[in-house]
Specification:
Layout (H helix, E strand, L loop, with lengths): L6 E7 L7 H12 L3 E7 L5 H11 L3 E4 L13 E2 L1 H6 L4 E5 L2 E5 L2 H6 L11 E5 L3 H12 L4 E6 L2 H10 L9 E5 L3 H5 L4 E4 L27 E4 L8 H8 L3 E3 L2 H16 L5 H12 L1
Parallel strand pairs: 1-2, 1-3, 4-6, 7-8, 7-10, 8-9, 10-11, 11-12
Antiparallel strand pairs: 3-5, 5-6
Helix pairs in contact: 1-10, 9-10
Bound molecules: NADP nicotinamide-adenine-dinucleotide phosphate.
Length: about 280
């Protein structure tokens, strides 16, 4: 029940209607029996600063940040975690005694399904060089990948992406390449990650990669698609047909949300409830 004492959490984005975060967070809040509610806030970029002022006034305890605010919000916060600084984006904001604290839990979410394996000598190949690719690069570095290759379609954006990591130790392991160089890189890739939106519903019949090229992957390679609708994507279906282990983006979504909720509530959260709520909703 929402009363005058109920504490507020939420998610900001523009648009925000598609967000699945309220589904999983409110399911966890209900299961825990804590007096919180998690709401979607559609915030036009032009109103971002005013929205933060408003959140302070109404006592919002914390919020998730999605497109297009993940980078724009950084200069408006009082403190930013080292992780978020390295990634260059914030997806979670907490109210603290000294103001707004921003961090990035996409990295935790991305890594969650990969933790059981040793990646020390591994090579990662990342398709796309947008916002999510930044968390993936940081994650691949954190688990110890020896080489991290990022393939993109725009030479200038790739150069900017590469330059943005030059003050970070990942730079010694990071290589960028244009899309036409993809076939040459595949034979080394133990982990192939799609961070482009190619194959996301409603374009579910598309794949970022020619299925014939997937034959080049080494035995035991893992194919990871950040997309979670549809499940599985065309890319993951094709990779599984080649014998790859396939991981979709649902677990990343669940785990990044679980880490955020844990930060806001300062207690452990029911990850399985969050996962089931999302699965039920997507079904
Ligand atoms: P983004 O910042 O817009 O980046 C998208 C990247 O894909 C860009 O590098 C873009 O290239 C590239 N791209 C787009 N269309 C392409 C095409 N037709 N051919 C080649 N490259 C193409 O988006 P994002 O925030 O990184 O999100 C990317 C995907 O990850 C989305 O599907 C999103 O839903 C998913 N995601 C999932 C989770 C999760 O929790 N599972 C979390 C975050 C994101 P240009 O820069 O050249 O346009």
């Amino acid at each position: 029940m929402i009363t005058g004492k109920t504490k507020l959490l939420g998610v900001i984005g523009h648009p925000i209607e598609h967000s699945l975060s309220p589904v999983m967070h409110n399911a966890a809040i209900a299961a825990l029996g804590v007096d919180y509610v998690y709401l979607p806030f559609p915030i036009d970029p032009i109103n971002l600063r005013r929205a933060l002022d408003g959140f302070e006034v109404i006592g919002l305890q914390g919020f998730s940040v999605t497109i297009p605010h993940k980078q724009a919000i950084m200069p408006l916060l009082n403190e930013i975690s080292e992780t978020a600084k390295a990634i260059g984006a914030v997806n979670t904001v907490c109210r603290t005694a000294s103001g707004w604290y921003g961090t990035n839990t996409d990295l935790d979410g991305f890594l969650a399904p990969l933790q059981s394996q040793n990646w020390a000598e591994a090579t990662a190949l990342i398709l796309g060089n947008g916002g999510a690719a930044r968390a993936v690069v940081a994650g691949c570095y954190q688990i110890g990948c020896r080489q991290i290759h990022v393939v993109g379609r725009d030479r200038q954006k790739l150069k900017t992406f590469w330059q943005s990591w030059q003050d970070h130790p990942v730079s010694a392991h990071l290589f960028v390449a244009e899309w036409q160089e993809l076939p040459d890189r595949l034979s080394q890739a133990n982990l192939l990650v799609n961070t482009t939106p190619i194959g996301m519903a409603p374009d579910a019949d598309r794949s970022p990669i020619d299925p014939a090229l997937l034959e080049k992957l080494p035995a035991g390679a893992i194919a990871y698609d950040l997309i979670y609708t549809p499940r599985p994507t065309k890319f993951l279906q094709q990779a599984a047909a080649q014998g790859c282990v396939a991981i979709d983006g649902l677990e990343m979504l669940v785990q990044q949300g679980a880490v955020a909720l844990q930060l806001w509530l300062k207690q452990s959260v029911p990850v399985e409830v969050m996962r089931s709520a999302l699965l039920d909703f997507l079904r």
